[in-house]
Amino acid sequence: MSPQSEPIPDDIVIIGDSAFAEIACEYFTHDSSHEVVAFAVESEFRESDRLLDRPVVDFETVEEQFPPDEFSAFVAVAYTDCNRLRERFCIEAKEKGYSLATYVSSHAFVWNESSLGENCFIFENNVVQPFTEIGNDVILWSGNHIGHHSNIDDHCFISSHVVISGFVSVGRNCFIGVNATVADNTDIGEYCLIGADTTILGDTADEEVYGSSQSELKPYSSTEYFSE
Question: Domains of the chain (ranges plus CATH)?
Fold first, then answer.
């Protein structure tokens, strides 16, 4: 596994100020060699000057205070607009000259023969089996299984406890919800939304949406149920 082809600066600016940005700061601080020095937000949306005892600066001019030859960056934006917003910030940060950091939890299992791109975030209890390819800007929240010989393309967001079986291809900018399952030898198109607790048994086209229905509401209360 080689998250970065070359060493990047340890001091890091997190792009974003959402809950994900706060979580990313915690993980980078306590489980990596990186030191988070600041957050950057577009001036139109910046609401404060400090977050987690660190400065919050305008993204438009972040390189003036934190030059990219001395600092790296991580884009901590969730799955807004099918991951397009995070993709845009990655592109713009690269255009500013920043190297994009990747985080892999010390409590994740990522096989050595797997490849991993930049601006990825691999939470705890993920299992990434041999011969997988994970592109740039892929978020694997906690507890997923990524099967052998599978490929996850750029700018995907995989929620918790997802099972991606062997020889699966997931197209760019997909979102896969909690507890979803993708059967082996399946190709998922680009920009697909696969909802929570959904099972995919065959190939999908681009921009398709899949979701299981909400569980049926019973016509009695929990008190009535346990009193029977």
Answer: 11-95 (3.40.50.20), 102-205 (2.160.10.10)
